[in-house]
Amino acid sequence: MVKICCIGAGYVGGPTMAVIAVKCPAIEVVVVDISKPRIDAWNSDTLPIYEPGLDEVVKACRGKNLFFSTDVEKHVAEADIIFVSVNTPTKTRGLGAGKAADLTYWESAARMIADVSKSDKIVVEKSTVPVKTAEAIEKILTHNSKGINYQILSNPEFLAEGTAIDDLFKPDRVLIGGRETPEGRKAVQALKEVYANWVPEENIITTNLWSAELSKLAANAFLAQRISSVNAMSALCEATGANVSEVSYAIGKDSRIGPKFLNASVGFGGSCFQKDILNLVYICECNGLPEVANYWKQVIKINDYQKSRFVNRVVSSMFNTVSGKKVAVLGFAFKKDTGDTRETPAIDVCKGLLGDKAQVSIYDPQVTEDQIQRDLAMNKFDWDHPMHLQPTSPSSVKQELDYQKIFNNMQKPAFVFDGRNVVNADKLREIGFIVYSIGKPLDAWLKDMPAIA
Ligand SMILES: NC(=O)c1ccc[n+]([C@@H]2O[C@H](COP(=O)([O-])OP(=O)(O)OC[C@H]3O[C@@H](n4cnc5c(N)ncnc54)[C@H](O)[C@@H]3O)[C@@H](O)[C@H]2O)c1
Ligand SMILES: O=c1ccn([C@@H]2O[C@H](COP(=O)(O)OP(=O)(O)O[C@H]3O[C@H](CO)[C@@H](O)[C@H](O)[C@H]3O)[C@@H](O)[C@H]2O)c(=O)[nH]1
Known about the structure:
By secondary structure, this protein is α/β, with parallel strands linked by helices. Helices cover 44% and strands 13% of the residues. It has a six-stranded parallel sheet with strand order 3-2-1-4-5-6, sandwiched between helices. A two-stranded parallel ribbon has the order 7-8. A two-stranded parallel ribbon has the order 9-10. α1 links the parallel β1 (2-7) and β2 (27-32). It starts with a strand and ends in a 6-residue tail after the last helix. Nicotinamide-adenine-dinucleotide (NAD) binds at residues 7-13, 32-35, 38, 72, 85-88, 105, 108-109, 127-128, 157, 159, 161, 271-272, 389. The site of nicotinamide-adenine-dinucleotide (NAD) has 28 residues, from α5.
């Protein structure tokens, strides 16, 4: 029986390994982590992350061929294939602080693998890492190899939170990079055979190591760039009377552009886009490519601009101050169907409003009050915050808001600011609300109170 061990039981390690286990009954999969509360939660009825469909997959194979354990060394020693799926946050100190990826967790995992291994291993980079990381890992592993043969593969993960299980069941592609040597090709083949249990062969791409590592950063940069592009357009739409949804639809009909990922928003969030673009920017700078670095930096600058623009709209609409005014914030996670608050634009929006002394009440069915308090207490540089994986109790009860009742109880004029273009603005206007929708023609009220973006 092939044995897989995954180091890191987070948003990637947990769901990815659960899907491998459910699709490959002949493989034993053990997910290990240094965090006991996290492992305990994976072994309980309340999983540490909320992801539609995850409970069912875990329940189907946990205790059969899927295990969660804190006994990291034992399971690493026994494994044939080791996935490393630890966090790789942005460095907050020292060389490259604010941009470069912090590989502390990766390095300690690699050193531990070198220490405890007694048989040949395939070590798979699942975490998103800077291009050329495999070379550094190879050095750590082979430095003290005791005759053990290590093959390093890059197998970046492309799942998006909120749709992780669907994405893993039907990936657009699986990417495997390896050394172009006979041993390297053999290792690539071994990993390919795992995925071939459910992924069609034509969707499994094999490349060299550096292409695989860089493709992950490139994919996230391209995706985030689309959002910044449409968000930049949303500002111009508001200034001209164009409607960003109509513009997105019209351009998305061009098959070269395509319709996906063109929704204007208050800005992208999540643990990946900003971190990975900053990392890309740093790599470009280190390779003497400042023009390329500046090009990608703009994607983040527009994202920051979009968040400030939203806050400015709120404040300027209410006579340039929200001091003492009660603002309800509906939704705090970085997107729907997740409880993850890493880099959520809601943090910046709430901080902007609190900075203007608003009274802010926040609600998100997937996020605990403690988590929100921690997020708002953190200063901007604490990019990775390990507390985010506390068990949550997913509530699937959908509650419809009674906007008429809400309106009746609010001070007038009453406002709704929609950072995701999800409310029915016409209906709300009929009730009497002044509504701001990103990138849509402005209400007369808002036109008279131009925001300084
Ligand atoms: N979150 C996503 O949607 C997503 C998608 C694709 C790729 N990625 C990438 O995957 C990687 C992991 O992301 P994540 O969101 O799962 O992170 P996470 O913080 O949710 O999980 C990482 C886990 O690794 C554990 N860990 C750290 N060092 C360890 C060690 N030495 N030994 C054992 N366990 C250790 C931590 O305790 C934590 O539970 C990152 O590089 C990220 O960029 C994330
Ligand atoms: O048209 C869109 C699409 C997304 N978003 C926002 O963009 C952010 C990121 O969304 P999404 O990409 O769906 O979620 P992530 O879980 O961050 O997934 C991204 O980051 C992962 C980590 O690297 C990759 O694996 C995925 O392929 C990549 O989509 C969220 O705040 C969304 O609300 C928009 O504003 N407009």
